[in-house]
UniProtKB/TrEMBL annotation:
The keyword Transmembrane helix applies. Keywords: Membrane, Transmembrane, Transmembrane helix. It comes from Halobaculum gomorrense. GO terms for cellular component: membrane. Residues 354-395 are annotated as: Disordered. This is Predicted PurR-regulated permease PerM. It is found in: Membrane. Belongs to the autoinducer-2 exporter (AI-2E) (TC 2.A.86) family. The chain crosses the membrane at residues 12-45, 65-86, 143-164, 200-221, 233-256, 268-288, 308-337.
Length: 395
């Protein structure tokens, strides 16, 4: 067969496309956690970008300011946690620990003079180099893991930035080359986009609300109780409580339960009474646990998806995929709901994608998230998109 024939050329291009898709799929599979977290940051930051863009008529500047609004508090949190950790470490090991370590370094003059005075003692110390090497390797492994985490975080934030800046270009390319505005695929993508924004924004807003509530509860508790039963580093504990809210069901228990146990032990040692620690546990359980899970998160996640479905998506996603399942589980739930409620009937009947009487998910024909009023999952969180400005216009 002539290589210049259209059929042969088409087959070669098809093979090249398959190889390209395979390579991209391999990268996606290898960095799926990084990509999913980047999508989460993008959807969580998109309302902020819109607010900034109303005041700054430049997409790049708006995206940059939005990412700064997210990254700077993160850097402050990490720096504050590092300072607190170093201060607590110095308190535990004592003020002379650093000097004791320096005195044993080979470059220290006192160390060199000690070797010259007693070489045998120095040789005996060399026998412990194996244990020191194991400790050094553990430190190196820990540093490597931390560096890997920083790398993946940087990639996720970079992906979020480029999506915030260029999402309209991506959407325009998809409309022009993949699915037109009148196609069923475009309608389904609009609905998935709208539901993802509502779900992710509900999660971010819940974490922020719990963090603020924890700051008030922990610092207010310290202001009312005796120093013997006061919380150490209440501000850091409050920030960690907010981050723990990402973990479904467990949420703030990761922080306030150990903190309450510490307060009970301090109360038993100091004979200060158990009333204050018990009150701390009760208030934390009600304000930082029950209220966010039963009221705040469903209310902010909108009415398009049932709150029980989202809860199971968080739990099962984390159990199946690990840490990134907290973000990947809701994404899969949204896609499955939209396909099952709208695209699957289209495949069976051949009719265009339509709501079809389904009471879950955003209506793909209108992007109206307030349609599903009968699912009992609370009021809508994000503003519903209109046909004149589809969700895909920002994605």
């Amino acid at each position: 067969m002539d290589l210049r024939t259209p059929e042969r050329s088409r087959r070669l291009w098809l093979a090249a496309a398959v190889v390209a898709v395979g390579v991209v799929g391999l990268f996606v599979y290898s960095f799926v956690g990084t990509l999913v977290f980047g999508l989460f940051v993008y959807y969580g930051a998109r309302p902020i970008r819109r607010a900034v863009e109303r005041r700054v008529d430049d997409r790049s500047v708006a995206a940059t300011l939005t990412m700064l609004a997210l990254v700077l508090p993160l850097l402050v949190l990490v720096g504050y946690a590092g300072v607190v950790a170093f201060r607590e470490f110095a308190t535990v090991v004592g003020p002379d620990a650093v000097q004791a370590v320096l005195s044993r370094l080979p470059g220290d003059p006192r160390s060199v003079s000690a070797v010259l005075r007693d070489p045998r003692a120095f040789l005996r110390r060399l026998d412990r180099l194996g244990a020191l090497r194991e400790q050094a390797l553990a430190v190196v492994r820990t540093a490597g893991a931390a560096a890997g985490a920083v790398l993946h975080l940087t990639l996720s934030l970079s992906l979020a930035f480029f999506l915030l800046r260029d999402d309209e270009r991506v959407a325009a390319w998809a409309r022009g080359n993949v699915a037109g505005e009148e196609s069923s695929a475009y309608a389904l993508a609009r609905a998935v986009d709208a539901d993802l924004e509502r779900v992710y924004i509900g999660n971010v807003a819940t974490v922020f609300g719990v963090t603020v509530a924890a700051l008030v509860v922990y610092n207010g508790y310290n202001a009312l109780v005796a120093p013997a039963v006061a919380l150490p580093v209440p501000t850091l504990l409050a920030l960690l409580t907010g981050l723990a809210t990402f973990v479904p069901i467990v949420v703030g228990k990761l922080v306030y339960v150990p903190a309450g146990a510490y307060l009970l032990r301090e109360a038993a040692v100091s004979d200060a009474g158990f009333a204050a620690p018990l009150a701390f546990l009760v208030v934390s359980f009600l304000l930082l646990d029950v209220l966010p899970q039963t009221v705040v998160r469903p209310l902010l996640s909108g009415r398009t998806l049932h709150d029980g479905l989202i809860l199971f998506a968080y739990v099962l996603g984390a159990a199946l995929f690990g840490w990134y399942g907290l973000f990947f589980g809701p994404l899969l739930a949204v896609v499955v709901v939209q396909v099952a409620a709208h695209a699957f009937p289209h495949v069976i009947t051949g009719e265009p994608v339509d709501a079809g009487g389904a009471d879950v998910g955003t209506d793909p024909t209108t992007g109206d998230g307030e349609r599903a009023a009968g699912d009992g999952s609370g009021a809508g969180g994000a503003d519903a998109e209109t046909p004149e400005r589809s969700p895909n216009a920002d994605s």
